[in-house]
């Protein structure tokens, strides 16, 4: 993938969208971990907690990018990513993070929580990057400031405009479809850039969005039924 071509920029935009949708609540984790500290220490915790989380995210994503080159793992990753895209639509994320009383404990909590919560993000970004480590780093550099300083606003927007979440899930599902057809032993059946290959990606997107939408409608009806009874 050449730098700053249409393909490169499209992948970069996809990574930013994935980072925002899948990691949009990470600033809440930071706030919860640091909320019992004095305000002058909170800035220190936020800064170093974010730095540590970014370093861990880069290391983890780089490792996954390398692992996806092992035969068969790209296919497995694609299947997992389809499930992640679906769960993104139907699952609410909890924030059971204990507030810490020391700077070190708060920073440690932020790094560990971000690493654990960011596994879905890591897999999705690695799938989009196609072995390009510059894309991984650029995506994080662009996304992290938005996540840290603007994620509360972004979460409100997602609550107000649910279609934003569907766009994010669609991007993740499209990436998953690309991983499924990009596996080496699948390429003879799905040549890169072929209509068949794109067809699988379109089906992945439509399938995930339809499944998620129907499940949400079912949950809503069940919830309304409980409230009226």
Automatic annotation (TrEMBL):
Keyword presence, Transmembrane: yes
Recorded superkingdom: Bacteria
Membrane topology: Multi-pass membrane protein
Classification via InterPro entries: Integral_membrane_TerC, Integral_membrane_YjbE
Statement: the UniProt record of this protein carries the keyword Transmembrane: yes
TM regions (residue ranges): 12-33, 45-67, 73-90, 102-127, 133-154, 161-180, 192-214
Keywords of the record: Membrane, Transmembrane, Transmembrane helix
Residue ranges that the Swiss-Prot or TrEMBL entry lists as coiled coil: none
Gene Ontology cellular component annotations, sorted alphabetically: membrane
Main localization of the protein described in the UniProt heading: membrane
Cellular compartment(s): Membrane
Similarity remark: Belongs to the TerC family.
Protein's name in the database: YjbE family integral membrane protein
